[in-house]
Write a structure and sequence with these properties.
Number of helices: 13
Largest sheet: none
Number of strands: 0
Number of domains: 1
Oligomer: single chain
Structural class: mainly alpha
Order of helices and strands: HHHHHHHHHHHHH
Length: about 300
């Protein structure tokens, strides 16, 4: 895989910011739709629609079964992410769900060390610490921690593993269409299987419920995950993770505006710390030794 141009890297970063923003919008939307559909059924229907929308491009491939093995591994963590997160929304607030999901940033250096033996740099550690401090302010700490928060924390761990494994596959020049397609239909199958085991109803009440599911299938699922895979060809997992810590900031903004939640200054301060962590994470890639010598910094 060749090195991306500065324009290509900029487009990748913009794509990642889009992902963070659109995922941040889903918490309040999903929370409101849970009165119309069972959370497990919602995940199954959502990913089935996303897979169906990709099918026309899949049918143009000759080796349509390619990446089924990779898709299976990714689907295990993706289904774990969305099942725990969506069920957790039954017991916690939309803003808390967004904030706790953002804690995945603390898992990335841990899993990077366990899977790749890559130790985080000092600046990466500082940026993660700022992100954690910001998330602590946003959530109010451990006070009032409930089963929904615990499920969402499990979702955060699944989120980080999925990001790291995705990085491995896309940098090996995987076909992103097939990789996304196999993930989507497998997540749908896992969710429907789980729904049948727990006796969950599969129906959706009303057009509004269907509208939310279609929105979730098209934007936060199909477009965002596809863009994430393309962007990760040119970005390291830690940088992706730092940008994605903006997701709870967007979640808070949507909750304070569209969701009607009361604005809290302490939560705004937490968002500022998260942004600071993101910027320091960007500094971690610079070679300051070369900068002292007045050489061009790598971007």
């Amino acid at each position: 895989m060749g090195t991306a141009s500065p324009r290509g890297k900029l487009m990748s970063d913009m794509g990642l910011f889009y992902c963070a923003a659109i995922w941040g919008s889903t918490f309040i939307v999903t929370k409101g739709a849970l009165s119309a559909v069972d959370p497990v059924a919602m995940v199954g229907i959502r990913f089935l629609i996303s897979a169906a929308l990709l099918l026309p491009w899949v049918l143009k491939r000759r080796a349509r079964s390619r990446h089924m093995r990779e898709g299976f591994f990714l689907s295990l963590f993706l289904s774990s992410l969305y099942l725990t997160q969506t069920i957790g929304l039954l017991y916690t607030s939309a803003s808390n769900s967004g904030f706790i999901t953002g804690l995945f940033i603390i898992f990335i250096p841990v899993f990077m060390f366990l899977f790749r033996r890559e130790r985080p740099t000092g600046l990466q550690g500082l940026s993660a610490a700022l992100a954690i401090a910001g998330l602590w302010l946003l959530t109010g700490g451990a006070h009032g921690f409930n089963p929904g928060d615990a499920l969402t924390l499990a979702a955060a761990a699944s989120y980080s593993v999925h990001l790291i494994i995705t990085d491995k596959y896309v940098k090996a020049d995987a076909d992103t269409v097939l990789l996304a397609f196999h993930q989507f239909w497998m997540v749908s199958a896992i969710a429907f299987g789980f729904a049948l085991l727990r006796g969950s109803p599969l129906g959706v009440a009303g057009l509004e419920g269907w509208g939310v599911i279609v929105f979730l299938a098209v934007f936060p699922t199909l477009t965002a995950f596809f863009i994430q895979m393309l962007a990760q060809r040119h970005s390291e997992p830690f940088k992706v993770g730092i940008i994605f810590t903006l997701e709870p900031v967007f979640a808070a903004l949507f909750a304070w505006t569209l969701g009607g939640e009361k604005f809290a200054a302490v939560k705004a301060a937490g968002g500022l710390l998260i942004v600071s962590g993101m910027l320091i994470g960007e500094l971690a890639k610079f070679d300051f030794g070369r900068a002292v010598k007045k050489e061009v910094l790598p971007v």
